[in-house]
Structures are given as structure tokens and as C-alpha cells.
Amino acid sequence: MDSIFNRKLGKSGIITSPLGFGCWAIGGPFRMDGLQDGWGEVDDKISKNAILEAIQYGVTFFDTADAYGTGHSEEVLGDTVKEFRNKVVIATKFGFTYNSQTRELTGTDASPDYIRRACEASLRRLKTDYIDLYQLHVGSIPHEQIDSVIEALSKLQFEGLIRAYGWSTGDVECARIFAENSNCAAIQHAMNVFGYEKGILELCEKHQMASINNAPLAMGLLSGKFNADTTFSSQDVRGNAHAWLKYFEGGKPRQEFLDKLDAIRELLRSEGRTLVQGALAWLWAKSENNIPIPGFKNPEQVRENAKAIEFGPLTPKQMDEIDGLLNSIEQ
């Protein structure tokens, strides 16, 4: 399938499909702060088939992290795309330390020495000699530390180990300092029709950076498959009490988001789209800088997401109607 439109990773000149795929779920189980941070057990064969399906549908961008499955996600992605390396854009992230034997995140480290070690380890797992986009994964660090991170990433870029760099953060001030003092290509942040940090998107547009949207489907809530009776197990990140978990509480979807979805359901399904495809179309309509990266665990999810490209963005009229409906609920 030919993409109708493409995206750029900021000023880097790297061209990607308008949609990427996030590889958090295919990393399998791992723990953070004593809680499950994975999406349940995975079958690597199914994960690899899903990645190949994505490539066949014209999706060229894959976002992973060394933290996902404490390296396992990178290994699965690297094994799968090694024969297609020149056709795909690989983004990965660093900053969380981990124990790969126990599959547990142990802390954070954004020192220059650690950044280099982490990069070299990711290159080995990804079976490649360069990373297209290398991103800091820790959401906030002391402002005085940002310069040393920029310097370390610039050195890796100069050496050809990475082509571009960015930050996965929702911290507007950290993102601003980073953008104003570096050659940052992208900021990754949570963004979907339920909400986002406007300051981050404004920075991306002002500084010509890609806005990479994680949680574009609100961790699956925008699929429409869940209701007030849905319960997630403790083996699924959505069934745990992470402080940052926004859309779920007590292992169940939060009613306020179910209500919002009901209000905009038919608009998202316009012109024959599924809810998933409508949610992605909303992001493309919101900004030309946006690159949503929905997660996946099987080829069926990949196909549904990738087919959203055929529909393209929502219209300005549809966007206004969605805004009106959501505003009426929030008042």
C-alpha cells in the first residue's frame, strides 16, 4: 500500500510514514517500581509477523526502548527488520537502568558515559550500526544536566551512531530548554483526542520538530472494545496502580473517558472509519507535525491501524464538532 502522505522527523530530513508503531507491548512482561509495566505475555513469532505486516502496509517507522521488556522489544524488532534495514526508520530510547535477568527497571541514568553504553547496547540488540532517532526516555531531569545530555547525543550523531535525537517527555520546560539549545529532531509525548499538553505541540511546531504521539489510542480505550465492566489483570500495565496511569483506575476504564468516547463515537467513525482509524485521523488533522505510534501485539491490530492512512485526516468541520462535544461534557 502506498502512503498518501509522509512525515518528517523535524529538521533531520528523515522521512517516515505518517504512522509509526510503538513496540512497548511486544517487549513482554517487566516491572517498574514493583508493578507490572508490560502488557502481558507475548508470542515473538506473532510479534515478528505483525512487524512484517506493517512494512507491507507501507509503515516505515518503529519506536521502541531499551526499557521495554528490558531489551527484549529491541531484540525482536532488530531480528525482524535486519533484512529491511534501509527501508525502515528505527527510534529507540535510553535513560532507565534495568536488570535484564529479573526483567525489572532499577532506576535512571542520563550521564554521558551511560548514554554511550546504552546506545552501544541498543545497537547490538537492534542488529544495526546506526539508530535513526535516539531519545531520552526519562520524563524530567535537572535543568543543569540537559547540556551534558545534548553534548553526549551530539557526539553520537557526529560519529554516525545515531542520525537524530529527541526526548520523550511531557515536561514543557525541559522540552523548551532542549529544543532551544540543541538540534533536537522530535519530542515524543502523550497525545490523543482526550487531551494533550498544548505547550509541547506548540514547541514542536515553533522549532520544526516532529511531534511523536504515544498513547494515541489512550492505551486501547479509543478502540471501543472496553466498557465499565472491563477489568484488567495485574499482569497488564492497565491493571496496576501506576501514578501516571490516566485512563484506568482499579484495573477498569475510568467512566469519564467512556462518556467522552460515547459523545464523539459517530464522528470518529465517519466515512467508514473504525474508531481506531478515526482517533488517528484526529491526530493528523490536529498538526502536520504529528506522528502517532499506536502499540500492537498482532497483525490484525497492525492492519486496522495502517488502513487509517487511506482515509487521511479528519476535516476542519469534523474537528470543530468534536471539540464542541467534548467541551460540552467538560463544562
Description:
The chain has about 325 residues and is of the alpha/beta class. The chain has helices at about 45-55, 70-80, 110-125, 145-160, 170-180, 200-205, 255-270, 275-285, 300-305, 310, 315-330; strands at about 5-10, 15, 20, 30, 35, 60-65, 90-95, 95-100, 105-110, 130-135, 160-170, 185-190, 195, 210-215, 250, 250-255, 290. It has one domain: TIM Barrel (Alpha-Beta Barrel). It is built from 11 helices and 17 strands. A hairpin with a 2-residue loop joins strand 15 (about 250) and strand 16 (about 250-255). Helix 3 packs across helix 4 and helix 7 (about 255-270) crosses helix 8 (about 275-285). The longest helix has 15 residues, at about 110-125. The N and C termini lie far apart (about 45 Å).
Name a few traits of the molecule.
331 residues, TIM Barrel, globular
Unreliable segments of 5+ consecutive residues:
none
CATH class category: Alpha Beta
Assigned CATH architecture: Alpha-Beta Barrel
Largest beta sheet, briefly? 9 strands, mixed
Give the CA-based shape: globular
Q: What is the mean pLDDT?
A: 96
Structural class: alpha/beta
CATH superfamily: NADP-dependent oxidoreductase domain
Cα-based radius of gyration, to the nearest Å: 19 Å
Through-space gap between termini = 43 Å
- Total of helices: 11
